[in-house]
């Protein structure tokens, strides 16, 4: 009986993959799996596959379902998170007004909380990653878009309608590029991994000289990884593009600093694989543009440490809070 109700499930429901992890009460990862989302099958089938995967793995790992106290699930926004409803989601096209928390609770008999995926990853880093021992943190994840989360005074910031901290849509240029959200000049429209690569493609298509042109011709596309690889080889366009990305991210850091005054600003997501050349340039532009009236800017800009497990750890940690 001592085994009962002491573990937590964290789920990261993405457009491509669903990651599921089982964590102990002190957030030690007991098992994790990843299954393809196959979102086109629709919510009923996808949710059933999640339930089956949890039951099967729990059996296989000999950590019975009865030891699970609560379940947390992270999905891209916007959603009615506090009601547990995915309202609509561009990565999960058939998920319209899906009361996923209620359905999972019915099928698994445990409380379920729904959370924004970037918030979940932010909370994971805060609880067991780079944000341990601090109380205020801003978190960015650089992927297709720029997801974000804010920890203020030890708590995630939700706002009046659950969708606060959409910092990727902070406007950095009021007459700037059109963002997928409909605004102009969002940070995301420049400095996400996808848009960093897209700006390189556009420049080449407009006639810019670059060693990336060969990549574009060969693969039909350029990725942010390609751009950083060609930066390392000394390509001038790659330098220009990655500098613009770093400058926008630095502006994002400065704006966040003024809103939140965090101890740390943390970057996560696929693009941080670019490493030091990315981080050093963000810090460089941060120093260039930050106000001079208060010189002792002690905020630390750094990379996340949990990698792709942050989402499942954070979702489980939020389930533990309930
Ligand atoms: Zn936007």
Task: Explain how this protein is built.
There is one protein chain. With 322 residues, the chain is an alpha/beta fold. It folds into 2 domains: 123 residues, Nucleotidyltransferase, domain 5 (2-Layer Sandwich), CATH 3.30.420; 176 residues, ATPase, nucleotide binding domain (Nucleotidyltransferase, domain 5, 2-Layer Sandwich), CATH 3.30.420.40. The chain is 39% helix and 18% strand. The chain contains 10 helices and 10 strands. It has a 5-stranded mixed beta sheet with strand order 3-2-1-4-5. A hairpin with a 3-residue loop joins strand 1 and strand 2. Helix 3 packs across helix 10, helix 5 packs antiparallel against helix 8 and helix 7 crosses helix 8. The radius of gyration is 20 Å and the shape is globular. The model has no long low-confidence stretch (mean pLDDT 94). The protein binds zinc ion. Zinc ion binds next to loops.
- The CATH architecture name of the largest domain reads 2-Layer Sandwich
Return the domain count. 2
CATH level-1 class of the largest domain: Alpha Beta
Strand line-up in the sheet with most strands? 3-2-1-4-5
Ligands, deduplicated: zinc ion
How many extended strands?
10
CATH superfamily of the largest domain: ATPase, nucleotide binding domain
Determine the number of helices (DSSP H or I, runs of at least 4 residues): 10
Q: Which stretches are poorly predicted, pLDDT < 50 over at least 5 residues?
A: none
Note the overall shape. globular
What structural class do the secondary elements suggest? alpha/beta
Helix content: 25-40%
What is the average per-residue confidence, as pLDDT, rounded to a whole number? 94
Tell me the CATH topology of the largest domain: Nucleotidyltransferase, domain 5
Order of helices and strands: EEEHEHEHEEEHHHHHEHEH
């Amino acid at each position: 009986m001592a085994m009962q109700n002491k573990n937590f499930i964290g789920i990261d429901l993405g457009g491509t993959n669903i990651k599921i992890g089982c964590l102990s009460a002190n957030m030690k990862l007991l098992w994790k799996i990843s299954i393809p989302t196959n979102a086109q099958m629709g919510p009923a089938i996808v949710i059933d596959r999640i339930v089956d995967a949890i039951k099967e793995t729990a059996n296989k790992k000999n950590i019975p379902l009865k030891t699970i106290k609560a379940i947390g699930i992270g999905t891209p926004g916007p959603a009615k998170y506090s009601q547990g409803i995915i309202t609509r989601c561009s990565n999960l096209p058939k998920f319209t007004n899906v009361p996923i928390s209620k359905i999972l609770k019915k099928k698994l008999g445990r409380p379920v909380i729904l959370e924004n995926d970037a918030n979940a990853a932010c909370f994971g880093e805060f609880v067991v990653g780079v944000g341990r021992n601090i109380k205020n943190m801003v978190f960015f994840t650089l992927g297709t878009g720029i997801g974000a989360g804010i920890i203020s005074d030890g708590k995630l910031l939700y706002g009046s309608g659950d969708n606060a901290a959409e910092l990727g849509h902070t406007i950095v240029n009021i007459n700037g590029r059109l963002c997928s959200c409909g605004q102009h000049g969002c940070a995301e429209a420049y400095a996400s991994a996808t848009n960093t690569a897209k700006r390189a493609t556009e420049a080449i298509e407009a006639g810019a000289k670059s060693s990336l042109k060969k990549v574009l011709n060969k693969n039909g596309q350029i990725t942010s990884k390609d751009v950083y690889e060609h930066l390392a080889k000394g390509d001038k366009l790659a330098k220009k593009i990655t500098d613009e990305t770093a400058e926008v991210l630095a502006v994002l850091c400065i704006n966040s600093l003024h809103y939140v005054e965090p101890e740390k600003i943390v970057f996560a997501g696929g693009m941080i694989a670019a490493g030091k050349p990315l981080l050093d340039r963000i810090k460089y532009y941060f120093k260039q543009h930050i106000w001079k009236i208060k010189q002792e800017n002690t905020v630390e800009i750094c990379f996340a440490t949990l990698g792709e497990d942050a989402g499942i750890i954070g979702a489980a940690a939020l389930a533990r809070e309930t």
